[in-house]
Amino acid sequence: MSLTINEWQRVNLHRWAERGVDGFSASQSLPLSIFSRLLADVPDADSLVADASVVVDVRAFFAPASPGASRGPLWLSIKAETAVPLTCQRCLKPVAVPLLADQAIRFVATEAQAAAEDEDAEEDVLAFTPELDVLALIEDELIMSVPIVALHDSCEPEGYTEGEAPVADRPNPFAVLAQLKKDR
Fold first, then answer.
1. End-to-end CA distance of the chain
2. Domain total in the chain
3. pTM value?
4. pLDDT in tens, 125-154
5. Which residues contact 106 (CB under 8 A, 6 or more apart)?
6. Where are the alpha helices (DSSP H) in 27-132?
């Protein structure tokens, strides 16, 4: 099933989760260019990501109900994969950095409950809202998966010349002072 960008931004998770026995799931390729916050620090992003995409898999479902409850908690599973062009901090040239966001989110009734449960939970815990911007949530997860330092697997630092004498082979500038001390 393919959703429009507008449909990704205004999702009623309850309706998604109620669509079937296993809830709702969708897989889609979205243009990387729509993730403006993710690309904010990418130099010349318009030309570098023109054809790039983000492969997104989402699933909304209700977990099994606990005894005495009519329905279990609402969950949203997000998986998104892409590659963004960043600047290698070693050679200062572009490097395609693969990003993977894989997150499970459990929804609770209130912000206070979410804050209390989020500290101890392995999954993210958010307060339920009737309409959710899933696209923004996906972008948030991708932003959090960007590495602090982008590097090629192997490259040389800018200005480095192969065959340059190692620092240890250079004469010690304090050797003259040592000689003066010996002469006394």
1. 89
2. 1
3. 0.78
4. 999 988 999 999 999 999 999 999 998 988
5. 63, 73, 74, 75, 121, 123, 124, 125, 126
6. 45-48, 111-118
